[in-house]
Structure of Putative chitinase 3:
Amino acid sequence: MVNSLLLTFEVRQLLSQLYFISDFHGRWESQTGHNAPLYAPSSDSEWRKQLSVSHAAGLWVKMGAPKEKMVIGMPTYGRTFTLTDRRNFSVNVATKGGGNAGTYTKEGGFLAYYEICEMLRGGKAKYVWDEEMKVPYMIEGDQWVGFDDERSIRNKMKWIQDEGFAGAMVWTVDMDDFTGTICGGGKYPLIGAMREELLGTPRDKNAKDIDWEKVAGKPSKPSATLPPALKIPVSELLAKTKNKKGVQQLPLRDDSEEDDEPVDTASRPPQVMCYVTNWSSKRDGIGRFHVEDIDAKLCTHVVYAFAKLKDNKLAPGLESDIGDDLKEGTYKKLLKLKDKNPDIKILLALGGWSFGSKPFKELTANVFRMNQFVYDAVEYLREHNLDGLDVSWEYPRGEDDKASYLDLIRELRLAFEGEAKSSKLNRLLLTAAVPASSIAIEAGYDVPELSKYVDFFNIMTYDLHGPWEKAVGHNAPLFPIESATSAEKKLTVDHGAKQWMKMGAPKEKLLIGMPTYGRSFTLSDPNKFDIGSPAESGGESGKYTGEAGFLAYYEICDFLGGDNTTLVWDNEQMVPFAYKGSQWVGFDDERSLKTKMEWLKEEGLGGVMVWSVDLDDFRGSCGSGKYPLLKSMTTELAGYKVGLEYDGPYEGTANGGVAKGKKDPNEVTCAEEDGHISYHIDYADCTKYYMCEGERKHHMPCPAQLVFNENENVCDWPEKVERCSAHTQAPPSAK
């Protein structure tokens, strides 16, 4: 509702009466939320706090709607959810979809009021009144239902009168208890309560408000007693098998045995490649960033940008990078991150937008010059104990550049491979920062060939719009708006990633760029702020970054905290933007990055590239702790595994990589007699197990909160399985 208002309506030009409809939360979300709360609960995020009747009505007023023309919508239905964990039933808890369809309305996630009454009188449902939201919700098993009853309706009618609104609109009369035979309060109990409060017209003689708390009762606290272990149902399957000898146990692997050789796997965790810029240490005040500020546990790789070329050789970008006997250099400070995260890789980036294309053209124009650079680069990286090189040629264009770029990448990889074999050291990593534009990809990149040589493509899925344009547009929209032109629809994160896949890049090598900054504009008309509205220039410079049209996330937080700033969530692009007066900024926040991580996992991509850690809220001034954006990504990616399908000529040669042809001793191979069933540990995930049915292997999940107990062949509580005792929590104890 809030987004529809901000993106669709010129409120002052609407002359007829306004009918205000609310459907704030429902099955399209992954957490419980009330359909029409009068006020937002304190557990809501800052964005979700906009999703209430009072806030949305106030926004219409703020935009110029006269109160005497505003008719506030009152639903006679509820929105329902299926809880992930029925023991956790408060507002904003995890769900796994909409609730069960009603007997009569037959729509998942939706119940008419008379269907809700039927559940409340059925003896199993429990009633909860939420004093913050001033509305009730109901629990029955794993079903969660937010709705309005006479009590909440009367509260809302008093609020309408106090605020001076025109009245109430009902959606719809056919979903109230129109027969008067189900709820017990006479015909049309909800509409009757509205009429009584607003018009003073009494309800029918025998009509009365139902105290649902007395009828249904409150939900009780969970019991501290653990239920018995959940047996895996095998009796029916065993009855059909020829082998009646029972369940075959899988011998436990002796973890004390050392593996002589690397282990082959079909997946790996996602990569989180964090760029840090050398100019961030020169910012003023709280914007000044030092590499010691990096949280090493949040990144798998740190890429230091940028080195430069000197006499066609790799050279430090700043004199302070190497340091001297009196002062420690930045390279050594970066290497100290390994004290906190031994697995982190430190790479050096060469190139960048300011560096341009010309130096790379000159470098690759002569094969002897290029080869000398390659071998000097290996020596330079080893001298400073760095783990690899990131090539950021922005951008090769045309067939000559395309061939030269491929030659450079190929020669670097061949040199890295050869040096690793001779030195017996872990191979140096090779990554490439590349554009998201389909035109730029086609113009400069031989994608199938490049895929053989790079470890990862760092796709710059940002700066898709900015102050170089004459209309406002988001820096990094996940998806396009419906009204966009065919060309504009290609300027999205989704399209950029899929273009690389379409042209032959392996999904596991694609790291999707995530910006920790926003692009800002100065609006030509402060009253026109939708996507595509005219802009006269970039937005005002940030206090610390000092660049017009650009704001670090911590500067955006300051902007959002100012008076009269309006925050908008764009449901089409799945990103936020904000405006105040003539200033407009599009950016990513925790919600949009969580959404992008969900998309990334669905697409099976290799991970994220973050530009840049020094633009996130590294001091925690926004109020959500340090690095809120980076943490939102790593939290959402936890547990995600990237499938490894690409079989290139150099795969599995980097540190931590897997040599081909080596079998994982933990891999389960099913070789049973036909019909025989056995159960086996999944060493990678306590909450799952393998079931062998003859030669067929099934990967099975345990129910929520349980782990596989290999001794009993059951899904059991974690504290009963030593290797999984820290995996999940048991039910809370009674207080």
